[in-house]
Each structure stands twice: as structure tokens, then as C-alpha cells.
Amino acid sequence: MGEDIAKYSDRELTLFRKKRLAFVFQFYSLIPTLTARENVELTLELTLRKRKDISKIAEEHLTLVGLENRMDNFPFQLSGGERQRVAIARALAKSPDILLVDEPTGQLDQKTGDSVVSLIRKIAKEKKKTVLLVTHDQELECYADRVITLRSGQIVSDVSKSLITNIEDGRILNAADI
Amino acid sequence: MQQIYKTIFREFRFQKKRTFLLFLVFFVIVSIPLAMFSIDPSINASIIESNQLYQLAYLDMGFQGNSDEICSSVENLINSYPEYSDISFDIRPSCSYQLYHESNWYYTSIIGINATTSPKVNQIVSDSELSKLQDNTAFILESFANELDIGIGSKITLYTLVGEKEIEIVGLVKSIEFLSYDLSLEGAIYINYNTFQEFNDWGEIHFNNVAFYFPSDPDLNFVETFAEKLREEVNPMEAQVLYFWYVREFSISSLFQDVLKLTSQVLFVMACAIILGAGIVIYLITKRYAVEQRKQTGMLYAFGFTPKIILRVFMLRTLIISIFSIILGILGSYGFLQIMVRILVSRWGFL
């Protein structure tokens, strides 16, 4: 993007976060008193004015993550995987340039974790978004185009990969498989 | 409604216990004191029998001498000033008496009243027509009746030098003239003129009284001015005036002042403890809430909500609880105080 955001004022940073960034947190960070739909609408209200548009986009994204039947459930009524899906829908709904994902599988079992990361990748590809994912789980490397390894805060490797070339039936195929 | 504001109301639903606790704290430290010291309702609110004649201020002038001359002087004063035209008066004989009842002696005032008109005593609960106080019947101060453990229909015996006389109680009185027996240890019995004349010789001390009644809520200055003019009007040479008067100020705050005087130290310590306790609870609740909200605040900030909106939401929640609890608390306290007043009035006879 070619902009030095370190020089931004607080107001500019807030605007930057509002318009161009979205987050998916390890602990989901859903508002417990809002339903899945309302959680998604919450962030949409930052950028959109029309109620109709907000509801429509929220529903679209919840459907995209497979929660069309769970829209009016509160977070405590959802499983860990479902909560993370709501968090993903919430992040993607406002159509950010960059999606920051922090340990998205940290609270999930292997299978659910894989499906969540797979979903992030799929949607990011479809919508042409940049995803910056931070994880301790090295198995998630296969989902990445570029892997930067940090140790004690220092970059120890930075590898661009073209391993992931296709997704078929929810199964990730890498170059070697093809 | 925007979802961010919806969270405020949902908080009330999801955090019922904490919301209620906060409500209760505001109720105790804000609403009750506000209700107690700001609301100053008319005493009419605590009149039990609202259809009875009622006078807020009462002026009593005792005299020895010719009652006709006194009557003429008083009428002259009332007729001379239009502002006094609503004041009525009643010349009544009275005497102090030691009532013997069930092995005990009770200091009692016996007052003769005019039975041809509605008796000008306050708040009478009676089985009979108020204006028809028959011979050998009496109204009795309610708190005194409670002390004697008698009620309407009961009979008391008055002992005189010439024999015994049974008097039937036909009404219970809460009167401005007498404090509760519990406080004053002075009972009061109202009988009609005829009955009083019959027993006139019994009393140890005899008075003639002029009782003045003010039909509306007069302020203290009004009664004081009237009393001064009365003092000028009645010629001390014509009658030996044993003059005294009083006005009782009736309001919830003054009522509570009376109560506070009785138990002021205990209440003061209690009030301090309540305020201190409530302050600590508010501090703890707010602190805990702020800590709980830290994560949510950070998340909202990350999404791009401005600190201004986040702060507004945080403050709005507390504001809504406090306004709601204060309004509801004042209404509730008002009702609560009304009930307390009634209990106090009935128990201690402040009226």
C-alpha cells in the first residue's frame, strides 16, 4: 500500500482500522449480549448506513461460513467452531483490505481448526483479500502463500511458497500432490 | 437501534444480578434521601379519614373570666380582617382529671365540646354522627384508648364526689391538640357541654379555652400575626388570659426530624454506614465492570470504533441505570414514606 502508518495520528489509525483492517481473535471476542447476526452487523455499522444493506451483507456472510441456521443464536449457544466462524464472518463482512488472524485454531480441535483455516483461505481467495495469520501450529503452513518464522521476536525465515494450488472438496492439495 | 447501543440494554437482561445491585445502591444513597428531603407533601396525604374536618394549625387560648366578652373580642378580630374570615373558633371548658381505670391512674384532660355542630377535633373515627355527641358518650384520644385497651362501644367509669358515672366511647380521635399518649402520658376525653356541666365539679383545675382552627395550610407567620393581633384585641383587664398557642408543622421531613431527634445518633451512624457501604459497592461494581469491559473495549477499538463512542456506551449504561433507579426510587420511596408516615401517625399520634 506504500503508506507509513507509524506516522498516523490516533484518529487516522482508528480510521485505518475501521476501513482497511479486520481481526479474527483467538478467543473469538464476540459480544456476548449480541446474536451472531448482530455481532456481524456491529462492525458493518461502522462503514454502512442503510439498515437494509447491513442486514443483507450480514446474512450473506453468515451463510458463507455455513451459519445460516444459527444467525439468531447468542455466542453462548454456539460451539467453539461456530463462534470462530461468526468471528470470520464479522471480519470479512466489512470487506477489509487486510485480515489479521490471531491463532484462529488455538481453541479448536484439529478437525474444526482445519475447516476454519480452510474457510478463511477459501473466502480470502474468492474475495481477493490479504490474510496475515499468526499461529504456533506449524501444520497450518500448508495453507499459506508465504511463511515468516519468528523466534523470540526475530525473523528467522521468510519463505514464499506456491505449494497450495488447489482446493478440492475441502481437501487442500499442494504442488507435490498434483 | 445501532447494535453498539443495543449491547447496553442487553447487559441489563444478561446481568440481572449486577444491574439490580447497582440499582439498589443508587436507590439507597440517592433516591431515599431525595424523597425524604425533597418531597414535602401536604399533610392531607396522611389523613386517614379524608372526609373529616381537618385543620392544620391550632391555636389555644386559655382564660378565666367572662366567656361572652372573650367571644365578642374574638369575633371582632375575625370580622375586621378578610384574611381571617375562614378561621373558626370554639369556646370550650376543660379540666384536668385523674382517671382511674383497671387499678391504674391516668392523667387526663376532659374537654367539653359543642355537640350541636361538627366537633372541631381532627380525624375522628366514630360509629355515630360526629355532630351528635350524645350525653354520657365520649370521644377518646386513640393512643389513650390503646393504652387503656378499650375501643368504640367500651365504657369507662368516671369517679366523682357525688358518685360514679359510666361513659360510653363512641369515637376515637387523633387530634392536633394532643400528642400520642405514648409520648405525652396525657390522655384526652371529649364530651359534650351537658355532660361536662354535670361533671364540672370533678376536675382539679378548670379552664375555659378558645380553640382556633385554620381551614387551610397557613404558614407560621400567618398564625403568629394572628396570635399577635389576638393578644392586642383581648383586653387583659377584662379577662385573665392564660394564653398559649402552637402550630405543628406537618411534613414528611419534619416528621422525620421528630423521629431523628428521638433516635438521631443511631440513625446518623446507620446513615453513615449505609452511604459508606453503598459508595464501596458502587466503586467495586464499576471497577469490576471496567475490568470486564477492557477486553470488549479493546476489541471495539480494534474494529475502528472511536474512543468517544466506546466511552459514551460505557457511560450511558451507568447513566440509564442511575436515572431509572433514581426516578423509580423516588416514587418507591415516596410510597414507602407515606406508609411509614401512616404507621407513625397511627402509632405515635403526630397528628
Indicate the percent of residues in helices of chain B.
40-55%
Largest interface: A-B, 22 and 19 residues
How much strand of chain A?
15-25%
The first-to-last residue Cα distance of chain A is 34 Å
> Given the C-alpha coordinates, what overall shape of chain B results?
elongated
**Helical element count of chain B?**
9
What does the main sheet of chain A amount to? 3 strands, parallel
Helix and strand element order of chain A: HEHHHEHEEEEE
What structural category arises from helix and sheet content of chain A? alpha/beta
- Using only C-alpha atoms, the radius of gyration of chain A works out to 17 Å
What does the overall shape of chain A look like? globular
Tally of DSSP helical segments of chain A? 5
Low-confidence stretches of chain A: 163-168, 170-178
Low-confidence stretches of chain B: 39-56, 243-251
Keywords:
heterodimer, A: 178 residues, alpha/beta, 5 helices, B: 351 residues, 2 domains, 9 helices, elongated
Describe this structure in words.
The complex is a heterodimer of chains A (178) and B (351). Chain A is α/β, with parallel strands linked by helices and 178 residues long. Chain A is 37% helix and 20% strand. Mean pLDDT of chain A is 82; it is low at 163-168 and 170-178. By secondary structure, chain B is an alpha+beta fold. Chain B folds into 2 domains: 3-41 and 252-348, no CATH class; 58-243, no CATH class. In chain B, 50% of the residues lie in helices and 22% in strands. Chain B is built from 9 helices and 10 strands. Chain B has helices spanning 3-14, 16-38, 67-80, 142-148, 181-184, 193-198, 220-233, 252-303, 307-348, and strands spanning 58-65, 88-101, 104-113, 124-126, 137-141, 155-160, 163-173, 187-192, 205-213, 239-243. In chain B, strands 1, 2, 3, 4, 5, 6, 7, 8, 9 and 10 form a 10-stranded mixed beta sheet that branches. In chain B, strand 2 and strand 3 (104-113) form a beta hairpin. Chain B is elongated and about 100 Å long. The two termini of chain B are 53 Å apart. The relative contact order of chain B is 0.20. The interface between A and B is medium-sized, with 22 and 19 residues.
